[in-house]
Hints:
This protein has 201 residues and is mainly alpha-helical. It has a domain at 109-192: Death Domain, Fas (Orthogonal Bundle). The chain has nine helices and two strands, in the order ββααααααααα.
Amino acid sequence: xxxxxxxxxxxxxxxxxxxxxxxxxxxxxxxxxxxxxxxxxxxxxxxxxxxxxxxxxxxxxxxxxxxxxxxxxxxxxxxxxxxxxxxxxxxxxxxxxxxxxxxxxxxxxxxxxxxxxxxxxxxxxxxxxxxxxxxxxxxxxxxxxxxxxxxxxxxxxxxxxxxxxxxxxxxxxxxxxxxxxxxxxxxxxxxxxxxxxxxxx
Length: 201
């Protein structure tokens, strides 16, 4: 503030004069604000585009991982079924395809009449020069532990065949091939008939 002495010797003060801002200063700030706003908008658009691309990439990787997991599980199940108690009938048929033997019945073993099954069980439990039910159990893929469990029962051959009949691929054909492979042609004839059983030799 400016002060000066009046005629009476007293001090007199006046307010400071502030010159107004030029009009071109306000006009120059507007382009700066517009540039900052455009930069923010572009940054947001770039961020959204990056997030969308990252999300799509994660979904593709997840889909590939699931597909690989399903393929591995299917292959593992196939290997498990091949190494389990199921009988590989194709490997047993290969040596006999040269003679062009007639195809045996592929009906399930569980459909065999009860009297015929009891006769098969009796022959297996009575034993023979080529092996008894234990040899058949080994041919069907059962290990020593399972064979020991069957042996503790009163009718091990019946327990063996009943357990095997509940598995996949338990057909009359498969059982006859296993019996023929172990030399129990008499049991195979009882199960499938003399004509069909002799054709497997």
